[in-house]
Specification:
This protein is of the alpha/beta class and 261 residues long. It has 9 helices and 11 strands. Helix 4 runs antiparallel to helix 5, helix 4 packs parallel to helix 6 and helix 8 packs across helix 9. It is extended and about 80 Å long.
Length: 261
């Protein structure tokens, strides 16, 4: 209460944010930055700290914590944004200890339950939060490594689970008791089957080809009097007066040509 009634400078507030002054529900004191103001019921996850419920009895104090000390409410979205995503960021990809693996499994399970609750209630999911989640989340692969989405694919059946495709590894799926709900969750995150990975790669390459062809036409119109030489490996050169005026390379040309042969 003394803090609420005192006039604190910005420097004082900055100092308070670094000091272990917030009692948590497990009895420890932590700096405000690492503590959530609990909702009802409070979210309980490993390494997610909630302020003691007695601190919530005074609305003026709660406003002070939120507005001056920047303590977030312990909503599912805030827990994902301020606790789980940083934890995924800090986790090195690959094999981790059994204890850390259990913690990440709880985090992924929490995100899945939140996604299912939002969709069942037709609640919108904030695009920026979804983008950050997809960017940083790690999932357990078939061989027990924890990997980012870019290195994983969703196996269609159990015969695929030991196969690496195009540098990607199958995500764990068939160990799950509820495979259908996990498959839907993985789809939501953007994981696809191997053939769809290939289709997506091809679409990207074909988009590059269209852009490269447009560039070629534009330079041909800009230098109509100069000679244009094309090479089959995705390169063209415009020459004039024994000088190269334009030289362009399409690095993925060979990949697309291999697919179309």
């Amino acid at each position: 209460n003394d803090l609420l009634n005192s006039s604190l400078s910005d420097a004082d507030i900055a100092t308070l944010r670094q000091l272990p002054i917030i009692p948590t529900q497990d009895g420890t004191l932590l700096p405000p930055k690492g503590v959530f103001l609990p909702t009802e019921p409070p979210i309980t996850l490993p390494n997610v700290h909630n302020a003691h419920e007695k601190l919530m009895a005074n609305p003026a104090r709660v406003r002070f914590f939120q507005q001056r000390l920047n303590m977030p409410l312990g909503t599912a979205e805030n827990v994902i944004r301020f606790a789980l995503i940083p934890a995924f960021q800090k986790t090195e990809k690959g094999r981790i200890s059994d204890g850390d693996s259990r913690v990440l499994s709880e985090y992924v399970g929490f995100v899945k339950a939140w996604y299912e609750r939002q969709t069942s209630q037709r609640q919108a999911i904030e695009p920026q939060l979804f983008h950050e989640l997809r960017r940083h989340i790690k999932l357990q692969a078939q061989h027990d490594e924890w990997l980012p989405l870019a290195e994983l694919y969703l196996p269609r059946n159990e015969s695929e689970v030991m196969k690496d495709r195009a540098g990607k590894i199958p995500v764990q799926l068939f160990q799950k008791s509820d495979k259908d709900s996990w498959r839907a969750f993985y789809h939501w995150l953007g994981l696809v089957a191997p053939n769809l990975v290939k289709i997506a790669q091809n679409l990207g390459q074909r988009g590059e080809k269209a852009a490269f062809d447009y560039l070629k036409r534009a330079f041909r119109q800009r230098y109509p009097q100069q000679q244009l030489k094309e090479e089959p490996n995705g390169k063209f050169v415009i020459e004039g007066g024994n000088q190269v005026v334009v030289e362009a390379h399409w690095l993925n040309a060979a990949a697309l040509q291999g697919e179309t042969q």
